[in-house]
Amino acid sequence: MAYFNEVTKVKYEGRHSNNPFAFKFYNPEEKVGDKTMEQLLRFGIAYWHTFTGDGGDPFGAGTAKRPWDHLKGMDLAKARVEAAFEFFEKIDAPFFCFHDVDIAPEGDTLRESNQNLDEIVSMIKDYMKDSKTKLLWNTANMFTNPRWTHGAGTSSNADVYAYAAAKIKKGLEVGKELGAENYVFWGGREGYESLLNTDMKLEQQNLANLYHMAIDYAKEIGFDAQFLIEPKPKEPTTHQYDFDVATATAFLYQYGLQDHFKFNIEANHATLAGHTFEHELRVARESGMLGSVDANQGDLLLGWDTDEFPTDLYTTTLAMYEILKNGGLGRGGLNFDAKVRRGSFETEDLFHAHIAGMDAFAIGLRVAQKMIDDKFFETIVDERYKTFQSDLGQKIINRQTSLKELEAHAIDLKDIEVRSGQVEKIKARMNQYLLNI
Ligand code: XUL
Ligand code: CO
Q1: CA distance 114 to 98
Q2: Any bridge partners for residue 298, and if so which?
Q3: pLDDT tens-digit profile of 186-223?
Q4: Percentage of the chain lying above the pLDDT 70 cut
Q5: For the segment 359-388, what is each residue's pLDDT rounded down to a tens digit?
Q6: b vs e for 347-379, b when ≥16 Cβ sit within 10 Å of the residue's Cβ?
Q7: Which residues pair with 184 in a beta bridge?
Q8: Rounded to whole angstroms, what are the CA distances from 148 to 117, 155, 305?
Q9: Phi (first) and psi of residue 354, to 5 degrees
Q10: Among 96, 148, 184, 230, which residue has the most ligand 1 atoms within 8 Å of its CB, making it the best to mutate?
């Protein structure tokens, strides 16, 4: 059965195309630098938003109209797999991502849930044999069910902790079975509400121990995926332990986990933390920990995680700049952790949304590559830090000086030439780059 009859395969038709079901800028085979767009962008489809989500929000029921709506339980789960692979083929997606509960319904016990999962995983495995779409990452949902109300790896209850450990164990086995490139840990409820009832030290230690056990088990079963932490400052938990990349980096170093993890950076999580998307990418890149990206955008007028499809070209450009400077995303990719708006409830909106996001990142990629080729930012930065190329500057950089020596240099200085940062000139040039793609 076909679920998306209104659309045949989405192809690149160029910037002047009026076909809403065509890419205007994403041309998978086109080379940018020495790699193709497909190799550089590595787009992933988020199963939960596109096939499981129904458009509901905290104020109202789901609005989405989907051709699988009449089904229930395992029949529904199977129909979603069929629909997913039809969608992947039509949108030409190289990757997809899921949580365990997105693909198969939970049973009354973990044993039952795992049986459901096994059945769907083997169906997915069969579909993957004839599909180019690979698994970018999978994860375990440890935030929806009421048992996670006080956290999973940071729960105040040891049975809940054990349940979380068992879900991760299964997640790693599923990842191995389907050849996942990465495994994600997003700590939805790993944080606290009030210090008055919280043993923060114990919770964080337990979480670190869980990660160590996951590393050991992946090794034991020969699952060599890259482990990723996905920071988020709040929502659902008030004080989230993985607040942002810098906070999570400190956690990883504190518990000896730094060599085993990279980051999955989500744009909307960055803005919730009071950062830009590109800031989080830069912080991770500087420490060699930029692993993968959840490509979406938040509504800056709203203070919550709206998970919109990314369409802001300024941001996609600055993000692609960081990614290219990182030498790409390695085994990571750009996963659209994004959902169509509640008012965009028709099935074809799923295509419009992904086309918009893929084109926005393709534009970002082209512009960022051009800026790198022209050494646009490098020249600005080199010029700005030029004084550090002097003897004095080199001594500072190499820690070969002292407060005494620097005082001797500074004590009679009169005419220090501090130059303008020229941010407005730089932004105006960036707009020129954006218009000239
Ligand atoms: C929640 C979120 C998650 C993770 C995976 O904000 O981003 O969907 O990406 O659990
Ligand atoms: Co995410």
Answers
A1: 15
A2: none
A3: 999 999 999 999 999 999 999 999 999 999 999 999 99
A4: 100
A5: 999 999 999 999 999 999 999 999 999 999
A6: bebbbbbbbbbbbbbbbbbbbbbbbbeeebbee
A7: 228
A8: 20, 7, 20
A9: -70, -40
A10: 230
CA distance 143 to 177: 24
Q: Omega of the bond prior to 105 within 30 degrees of 0, cis?
A: no
Q: What are the beta bridge partners of residue 31?
A: 36
Radius of gyration, CA atoms only, the chain = 24
Distances in Å between the Cα of 338 and the Cα atoms of 44, 47, 88, 276, 312 are 11, 10, 16, 17, 14
Asked if the model's pLDDT at residue 414 lies above 80, the reply is yes
Is residue 48 classed exposed, middle or buried when 0-12, 13-18 and 19+ CB atoms within 10 A define those classes? middle
- 239 flagged as catalytic: no
Which of helix, strand or coil describes residue 45? strand
Active site residue 34: no
Residue 217 has which token pair?
A: 């088990």
Question: One-letter amino acid identity for 76?
Answer: L
Going by C-alpha positions, the residue among 86, 124, 88 that lies closest to residue 103 is 124
Q: Could you give phi then psi for residue 427, rounded to 5 degrees?
A: -65, -35
| DSSP-derived secondary structure for 58-72 | TTB------TTTT--
Residues with CB under 6 A from ligand 1: 99, 139, 184, 186, 230, 232, 266, 294, 305, 337
